[in-house]
Design brief:
CATH class: Alpha Beta
CATH architecture: Alpha-Beta Complex
Radius of gyration: 17 Å
CATH topology: Spore Coat Polysaccharide Biosynthesis Protein SpsA, Chain A
Order of helices and strands: EHEEHEEEHHEHHEEEHH
Number of strands: 10
Number of domains: 1
Shape: globular
Strand order of the largest sheet: 3-2-1-4-7
Largest sheet: 5 strands, mixed
Distance between the termini: 35 Å
Length: 236
């Protein structure tokens, strides 16, 4: 789907400083055509020319707090019907004008790789297991859409999903399989550790160490050195 008529939505935690979000916004301002940027969840004082959705996030862990933001997104009337879901650690390194769904194998394979057969409530593994159960109960595919890449969703479809999906099931994969969106099988773009680089990659995501002190983060900061329109003037 073409992206230029779609709003772009970030679900953001409540960290006092969020430099990954700054560089993510710089990357999409340069490389991903879109209408407006929306922020649901935590605020940053340097944000500029973005729409601020409902800040309240309810829950005891980051996954349940993000789930509460999904409910706020689904009922946001001013948001475009179709939108691009982002995380603050997603970066678009090269021009992209169209996005396709991306998945990597099955949720069952992902759960096995995590090697935690009895996951604690609130953990990532717990949410994957619940997504598997949700899909199997409905004879749905179990594609793994937890790939750390932008994902196009529809507000009305998201609302219908949230009405039947347990809060403890991973929303991205539940959405992709509930609506059988299919897609292109791809490798995850998440980069871990200090040495991993991002040469020739178009979509990238980082964990904190990789962004703050790793080669991936250095290359991202070098690539997007200049302030973008979403940063308040005269702020660092």
């Amino acid at each position: 789907m073409k992206t230029d008529n779609l709003d772009l939505v970030y679900i953001v935690g409540n960290a006092k400083e969020n430099e990954e979000l700054r560089w993510s916004l710089r990357s999409i301002a340069e490389n991903l055509p879109h209408k407006e940027v929306w922020i649901f969840g935590g605020r940053q004082p340097w944000l500029w020319q973005v729409y601020l959705g409902e800040p309240e996030q309810v829950g005891t862990d980051k996954w349940s707090r993000a789930s509460s933001s999904f409910h706020n997104i689904a009922k946001c009337q001013k948001l475009s019907d179709n939108f691009i879901l982002m995380n603050d650690d997603f970066f678009v390194m090269k021009p992209v004008s169209e996005l396709k769904p991306m998945y990597n194998g099955t949720l069952e394979d992902l759960f096995k790789r995590r090697n935690r057969p009895n996951p604690k409530a609130g953990s990532f593994e717990y949410r994957i297991k619940n997504a598997i159960d949700f899909c199997r109960e409905r004879n749905l595919p179990t594609n793994n859409y937890e790939l750390h890449v932008p994902m196009i969703m529809n507000k009305e479809k998201l609302a219908r999903l949230l009405a039947v999906k347990p809060d403890g099931a991973a929303t991205r994969s539940a959405y992709g399989n509930f609506y059988r969106i299919g897609g292109v099988e791809s490798q995850d773009v998440k980069r871990f550790g200090f040495k991993a680089g991002i040469e020739k990659m178009t979509l990238v995501s980082t964990e904190p160490d990789a962004f703050c002190a790793g080669e991936a983060g250095r290359q991202i900061r070098d690539r997007f050195r200049h302030r973008c329109k979403y940063e308040r003037p005269n702020t660092i």
